[in-house]
TrEMBL record, chain A:
Keywords: Membrane, Transmembrane, Transmembrane helix. It comes from Cellulomonas humilata. Residues 71-174 are annotated as: Disordered. The keyword Transmembrane helix applies. The chain crosses the membrane at residues 26-47. Residues 71-135 have a biased composition (Low complexity). This is Uncharacterized protein.
Amino acid sequence: MSGLSGTPRAVFVDPSGRRGRTVRRVMWTLGLLVGLYCALVVVALVLPVGMSRLAVPGLGPLLPGPVAPALADPGSDSAPLAPLTTPSATPSTTPSTTPAARVSPTQATVPAATTEPAPAVVEVPVATPTPTAAPGRSAEAPGQSADAPGNDPTAKPVPASTHAAVPTPRPTKG
Amino acid sequence: MVGMAAVPTRRRGAHVEYVARRPALAHWFLLVAVLSALLLALGLQTLSSGVGGAGTVEPRERVAADAPTGGPVLVQDRGRLVGVPMQDRTVALTFDDGPDARWTPQVLEVLAREDVPATFFVVGARAVEDPALVREVLADGHEIGEHTWSHADLSAVPGWRRNLELSLGQLGLAGSTGLSTSLLRPPYSSSPGTLDAAELSAATSATDAGYLVVLADRDTKDWSSPGVEQIVANGGPTGTDGHIVLLHDGGGDRSETIAALPALIESYRAAGYRFTTVSEGIGLTGGASRPAAAVPAFQGHVLEFAVHASSWLVTAVSWAVLGFGLLSLLRTVLVVALAPHHVRVSARRVAGEPWLPPVSVLVPAYNEAVGIERAVRSLVAGDHPDLEVVVIDDGSTDGTADVVERLGLPGVRLVRQANGGKAAALRTGTRVASHDVLVMLDGDTVFEPDTIRLLIQPLRDPEVGAVSGNTKVGNRRGLLGRWQHLEYVSGFNLDRRLQDLWGCITTVPGAAGAFRRQAVEAAGGLSSETLAEDTDITMGVLRAGYRVVHEERARAWTEAPSSVNDLWRQRYRWSYGTMQCLWKHRHAVLDRGGSGRRLGLIGIPYMLLFQVLLPLLAPAIDLFALYGLFTGNAQSVLTIWLAFALLQTAVTAYALHLDGERLRPLWSLPLQQVFYRQLIYLVVIQSIASAVAGARLPWHKLHRSGDVVVPA
């Protein structure tokens, strides 16, 4: 074969072409695997993570007594239930120092949560441990799926997985 | 490194070149995939490298007026941030910036000894690096919170980065512990009262996402190493209020923290405090973490793997780049330092009366009608007295043989053969040549009058088997011509001088070389086994025990490819041929002869490093440089690039000076970096792929214009 480097003895040359096909297949496969890996990592990076929107079950009660000034906000659509002072008005308040101010629904919300000393106090004028009261500090809370048992009234639908894996006892629906 | 081009130690093309066949794309696909992975790895490293030192900020000038005051844990309540306090007489020790392989275990040990629970705010990027340690923290009964992915200042980064920091921080925990946490401590935070407007807004958006933002009310400032006593004083109890104490288990030397910890714990015990985790302290009985769902957990695992793989990959490539950078630098230093020595050595070889044996000049020609007349005339016009020119027409179809015949020059013989390739033509020429000193050149090479005489002088030493001439680019118009000119000059005149001194010149260029007939025969003659018959025969001569030297005064003017296409084809053949030779002569290191072993120990590894491996790494080097350029490292990238460009320019200027060339074309040198260099390394990658695949390269004739200009 004149004009071709491919004399039978030419270094590297595989006249049958079988090696070439194998090598090409291996390269395509490797490239594909590496590409898939890249795609997987990029997806893992940018796929929004649904945070476990923690039901801070006792958040209401956790807040310093005069919590949630917003609740008093007439514009608010939530049931006005708490004794209202702005937090800043009582900066030093801690649950125990202002027992009267505490929103008691804790008991309703997290029955078990009563490890803390304060919650026993129930002399809250408005707040009764009614179902709506507790979680309700956001009226729409019950409407949210159990996945997002947040007491965060502004709770947006949480993308993807939010794990309600530990179901927080919720007093909704009495 | 940016300044290093692939080694250009090569010679003129042969007759025939390959034609592009069915394009094989597999290796380009693989290259792109690998570069993407590398880019991703770099990006991931950047994303994780925000991991800064520990620290809280001093209260700023303008503290946000509406900072919540109720307590150190901020939650959102109907669109407003509300501070939740710790219960009275409870204290939560919190440790930021871990896990840290050195300090976290020590903290755990103290906590275990004191039987005190704590809360660890973990940096995601560190968690995935040492997931076992995070699991250990959990196993010890402590609580885990998020401290972002890379310890980024959430109030200072753009919104997308803030979201990414939070979500990747979650993934880091999901991957290492399978948990999702609602506790977030923003890096550089301290107490609610110190929040400025930007931090407040960052905290608000975190609470929007559902986080409890855990600040502290007792900032020990242990990150500043204020002394053990100061840490205890800063962090100790006041009154009966519940406290969250800010400490660090990572991000720097934490020995003071560990030393202060027992005393700090004791001070709270003495005041009647109970130690809790943050979530328990604010009354969250279920804790603040939940098992992560399957998808984020999987994402976390992917991330964990990617971080490890990326760090491995970037480290490996960085070391390779550094290694090659140092090798290239070393080579440059050697080349420049030894060049003057070579000038003396080579002058000594040809000192004294000229040696004027009868010489046979072999001119293999395949379709060289354009340049053959000029080449042959330049040969017979030479000043060597006893000369036989043998033109071997390798089955040309353009009447090359007729052109030669018509010349009717005395002393010029014409041999016609069926097309068989350059090596076959040279074999024919060797057979029919009348003399024992053989000069071989390409059909389009133009010799100067004294070229042949100068070229054969070193052969007077019977140990010398072959002499390499100095091939120069005759067509230097345009960037491509200038670039190749510079490449030939610094490649030939410097690199080959160095190889000469080492006694292992690996290529006597096909465009200009002189051989001793016995040496060629001892090497087994010219072979068609490789596409680089010149490198092949040179290595064969070395292995036959002869020395090969460089005679830079013997100049041969050659026509360099003038189109990118032709250049690509030429380099493809060179590169493929070189690798064939490296493989064919791989056992040289076992040779008994001195020059064969030198070839195996020095010449072949040298070629392998600079002509095969370096081009293979070059795309990664470019990617590193580009990445640095566009991600804020522009200054250091440009500095390195400039340093190498200057070095390269200086070396090339020196080479031009040694060769008696003008310095003017130097201006085109920096431009090599943006096109020529890439072309040179990509063609090497292509030929490596072909070699591995065992591809057969059909030959193809280069276009000849015959516009070689020999300066008077």
